Amino acid sequence: MPIRRIVLGLILIAPLAACNARGPVNVASDDAAWYTGTMPDKPFDVPLVDKSRLDPKYRRQVVRYTGPEKPGTIVVDIDNRQIALVQEDGSAIQYGVGVGKAGFSWKGEAHIARKGVWPDWSPTTTMVSLNPDLPRTRKGGLDNPLGARALYLYQGNRDTLFRIHGTNEPWSIGEQLSSGCVRMLNEDIVDLYERVPVGTQVLVKRNGKYRV
């Protein structure tokens, strides 16, 4: 499938997501220019983003890490729009993310209770109350707001309803647009998904803290 057809299909469904923006997002007319090709994946290939269009601080990179968190921990920094996966050698793999709008961002300690590949999406009760016209479900695929992968965050046995997931709105990385979930480039969530097992600790910080 030509990349332009993929991109146009993604743009048409952008306003549908519960974990996506609450309402349409204004984007440039050259949306196809965000994409450079695809990465093989199953059952769909992953559209690849032109990294030159991202602020360098939101590109995947290895950085020095001096925080107290143990290796293997995912640290989500809401204020800086970044995720760090802590490594054994004093470094971290850092990714740029998009985060929730003011009043919708969550912080706290959680763990990954399950993982999804091209997951199905459905809105939360809150999202339906805010927008009754939202579809009640959407199968996984290129037109799905959760993108290529999703990591489901739980506290104990309770689903927090917050996810770390892919996005079909790459221009939203570094922005505060979603309804609370943490969104990554599809190629980045695929990378993170492969590195972390179920049970991984996730710390979501705001103002430098993940505890009230």
UniProtKB/TrEMBL annotation:
Pfam families: YkuD (PF03734). GO terms for molecular function: acyltransferase activity. SUPFAM superfamilies: L,D-transpeptidase catalytic domain-like (SSF141523). Residues 1-20 form the signal peptide. Residues 72-205 form the L,D-TPase catalytic domain. CDD domains: YkuD_like. Its EC number is 2.3.2.-. Pathway: Cell wall biogenesis; peptidoglycan biosynthesis. Gene3D superfamilies: L,D-transpeptidase catalytic domain-like. The keyword Methyltransferase does not apply. The active site is at H165, C181. Keywords: Acyltransferase, Cell shape, Cell wall biogenesis/degradation, Glycosyltransferase, Hydrolase, Peptidoglycan synthesis, Signal, Transferase. InterPro entries: LD-transpeptidase, LD_TPept_cat_dom, Transpep_catalytic_dom. PANTHER family: L,D-TRANSPEPTIDASE, L,D-TRANSPEPTIDASE ERFK_SRFK-RELATED. Belongs to the YkuD family. This is L,D-transpeptidase. It comes from Methylobacterium adhaesivum.
